[in-house]
Design a protein that fits this description.
2 domains; 5 helices; 5-stranded mixed sheet; globular; alpha/beta
Length: 125
Amino acid sequence: MGMNKINQITNARELQLKHAVQTEKPGVQFGALLQKEISRQGSVQFSKHAEQRVQERGIEMTESLMQNLNNAVQKAKAKGARDVVIIGENGAFIVNVPNNVVVTTMSGREMKDNIFTNIDSAVLM
């Protein structure tokens, strides 16, 4: 998806939010809703499979870990990566960069003797 298409989608979503705010409760601030939506769109999302793996493997998802994942994905995107393994203290996260989606994850102890396939890049965080 090109940047132009992403901008069109973002602009359309902003208009939807603005309309929702105008027709909803008068106390709700459009700027706050817009910032929340923009933040959500820029953040990596987790597939259902990845969400299950996080729970099964006891990986603690903190604000700082999410920020590190987002930074790592942005760096990978800047280098043209498509499918990246992000390796940190908490484990490894396989991310589809164009879709901004964590596909799967594993804890640090599971990484030993494991082979990562179908990736084109790696980021250490």
